[in-house]
Amino acid sequence: MARSPIWASRSKTRGMVLDVIRAARSISRVELATATGLTGATISEVVRELLGDGLVVEAGRGAPTGGKPRTLVQLNPPARYSVGVQLERNTCVIVVVDLAGRPVARTSFQGVASMPPERALPIVASQVDALLTTAAVDRAKVLGVGLVSYGPQDRGAGVLLTPQPTEEWCDYPVASRLAESLGLPVLLDNDAAAAAIGEYWMGAVDPRSTYGCIYMATGIGGGVVVAGEVYRGSSSNTAEIGHISIDVHGEECPCGNVGCLENYAGPSALVRRALAIPELARRLALDPAADDFLTEFARIAAAANAGDPEARELVERSARYLGHAAVTVAVLFDLDAIVLAGQSFAVAGSIYQAVIQQELDRRLFARRAHPVRVVPSVNGADAAAIGGAVLVLQSELTLGIGRSEEDARLVAAGAAGSP
Fold first, then answer.
1. Better pLDDT: 36 or 3
2. Same fold, 5-75 and 80-195+383-415
3. Which of 135, 170, 248, 350 has the fewest CB atoms in 10 Å of its CB?
4. Please, what CATH class does the domain formed by 80-195+383-415 belong to?
5. Mean pLDDT computed over 224-235
6. What is the pLDDT of residue 7?
7. What pLDDT sits at residue 66?
8. 70, 50 in Cβ contact below 8 A?
């Protein structure tokens, strides 16, 4: 199957130039040559290609520098789009973003994770189709879908390696099945890694920095980004701080480790502790039978923000555990910053930010060499979904990976309605 120009293989040089333009917002060709170290002739050729493909546009003249004002170029946001799908235990969030990574449409719904994947994924696909239609996005401009979820997972095979939320999801080919339903390539990735790279694409961090992301929704995950690329390790299951042991004598976790951070600091742990305080549970109308820990956690967080002493003590205790993990990750990777992302931080972020910052300032090995800032995600509760869409943009437009023949086969199968 012949590839369309959108999917043509892109060189690393072209990707590097496009990424510099993205990060600079607007920039001249001379400035591009300085920033990339490429010759003026090479920059002129690459920019001409990007203009021809509609990925960038000319944006007026720069400030005079003693000679003729230089013509600036910038991204053309509506030139391409991508979709991010966050599959959580209790909810599914779908976003459509433009080439700049800015959300143009969003939807969310509950229930799919409790279904078997062969029932759930067609529902996700229909929601993606409906969102693209509602947003009036030209499907020919959609580069693909970033499907993000918890781990462990095999990114290459596009499968989850966990029996959560049910055994049926373990080893199920989620990426290829969703690709067949949509007729679009699907990239599977970790939700925390996706949230981390979303900060880079949106310009919220220094592009040269090394920073970490603590992601907390129903569980706790982590990611590390080095100079704009996610640190992957041998199987891309990196920085899973929720399963760092903080108590060698602790209870066994379903992951196989003992004393895992998630079992002390995660939303489900807070809900369990709150339910063990009868007066607090009554006051907050907590439901002991509820399996939607995010909703119950939000009640506790709201009470903590409002000054309830028992609720605040629970949240601060969770934050101190997370501060312990943040110190560990910052020491291992010598981080410049830590971003807090995910639905749980969206409702209790100010408390977590303050406590984690205190722990880093007090305990970090390299604190006299440089500080480590703790900051909230610019993408809020949708950080993972937006990051999933950004990973597609990054892989297809700036890393020069291009679509594989297998992706092309899946698109052909999807367009033909193959199962």
1. 36
2. no
3. 248
4. alpha beta
5. 90
6. 36
7. 60
8. no
Tell me how far apart the alpha carbons of residues 219 and 297 are, in angstroms, rounded to a whole number.
12
Reported CATH class of domain 5-75:
mainly alpha
Domain boundaries, the chain: 5-75, 80-195+383-415, 206-376
Q: What is the pLDDT of residue 396?
A: 80
Residue 226 tokens read as 């080095």
We find that the CATH architecture of domain 206-376 is: 2-Layer Sandwich (3.30)
Q: What is the pLDDT of residues 311-338, one digit of tens each?
A: 999 999 999 999 999 999 999 999 999 9
The amino acid sitting at 259 is G
Side chain identity at residue 165, one-letter code: P
- Over residues 117-134, the mean pLDDT reads 96
When the pLDDT of each residue in the chain is averaged and rounded to a whole number, the result is 89
Predicted pLDDT of residue 257:
95
Average pLDDT over residues 187-202: 92
